[in-house]
């Protein structure tokens, strides 16, 4: 009994000693951590945000790098662009309404077989029939004269676009200013009153070289002559008054003329050109 009691007491003593040692180690570790925390330098203060300076009205805004800012910038830029385009959209709408009204008027005129328009077209068809030709309808888009000539040139195996034909026409005029400029009236140049003669000339050429939907002007006699000279070809224009020949000096049995149609009364909005083909 005494031996067993002594053995039990020794075991408890060992466990108590071990527990004390564990507690001492944990306490020592806490002391070390607290000491290290006290000796560590204080964390840097948060950087002060720069003051927000209100931008002057109309001043350009810098692009923001963050995604949210980028989206905001795009939104306001789009808003600005849309605002700028408002007048253009209104103008397009006005033009579309005029076109619609003109088309309605043209349909009404087409029903009247005694109208000047109908008589003009009938007369030209008779002239074309004599030369074994028929009319080819060209879109009335402001580039009709150039489109009709593009059709004729392509029939001759010359690949050309309206844009290139306008450029070629303008280039010939630039190179032969003395032959062309005297025939350009102020009425041919938009808002030319305050311009010098050189400025009027340049404005006119810009109108020749641009497509109609980009501000280009309609083609006429001067442009027909320039294109005739550039390609060294006869251009035969069928009109109600009779065929009108341009570039007679290039007449040749081997080279057929470029044959187009001029309709003075074709549309309410103005004159029109069509092309031709063999009947």
From TrEMBL:
One of its GO terms (molecular function) is cysteine-type deubiquitinase activity. GO terms for biological process: protein deubiquitination. Residues 1-11 have a biased composition (Basic residues). Residues 12-35, 92-119 have a biased composition (Basic and acidic residues). Residues 133-279 form the OTU domain. Keywords: Hydrolase. The keyword Hydrolase applies. It comes from the Eukaryota. This is OTU domain-containing protein. It comes from Caenorhabditis nigoni. The lineage of its organism: Eukaryota, Metazoa, Ecdysozoa, Nematoda, Chromadorea. The gene is Cnig_chr_IV.g15536.
């Amino acid at each position: 009994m005494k031996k067993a009691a002594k053995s039990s007491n020794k075991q408890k003593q060992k466990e108590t000693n071990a527990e004390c040692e564990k507690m001492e180690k944990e306490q020592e570790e806490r002391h070390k951590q607290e000491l290290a925390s006290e000796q560590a330098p204080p964390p840097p203060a948060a950087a002060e945000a720069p003051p927000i300076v209100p931008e002057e009205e109309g001043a350009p805004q810098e692009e923001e790098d963050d995604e949210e800012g980028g989206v905001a910038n795009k939104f306001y830029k789009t808003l600005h662009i849309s605002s700028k385009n408002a007048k253009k959209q209104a103008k397009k709408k006005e033009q579309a309404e005029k076109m619609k009204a003109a088309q309605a008027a043209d349909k009404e005129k087409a029903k009247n077989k005694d109208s000047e328009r109908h008589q003009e077209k009938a007369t030209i068809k008779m002239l074309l029939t004599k030369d074994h030709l028929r009319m080819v309808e060209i879109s009335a888009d402001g580039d009709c004269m150039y489109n009709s000539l593009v059709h004729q040139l392509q029939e001759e195996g010359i690949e050309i676009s309206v844009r290139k034909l306008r450029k070629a026409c303008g280039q010939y005029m630039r190179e032969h200013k003395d032959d062309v400029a005297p025939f350009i009236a102020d009425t041919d140049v938009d808002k030319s009153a305050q311009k010098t003669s050189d400025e009027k000339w340049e404005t006119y050429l810009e109108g020749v070289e641009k497509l109609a939907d980009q501000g280009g002007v309609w083609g006429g006699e001067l442009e027909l002559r320039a294109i005739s000279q550039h390609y060294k070809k006869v251009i035969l224009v069928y009109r109600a008054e009779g065929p009108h020949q341009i570039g007679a000096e290039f007449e040749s049995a081997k080279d057929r003329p470029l044959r187009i149609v001029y309709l003075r009364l074709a549309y309410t909005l103005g004159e029109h050109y069509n092309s031709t083909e063999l009947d």
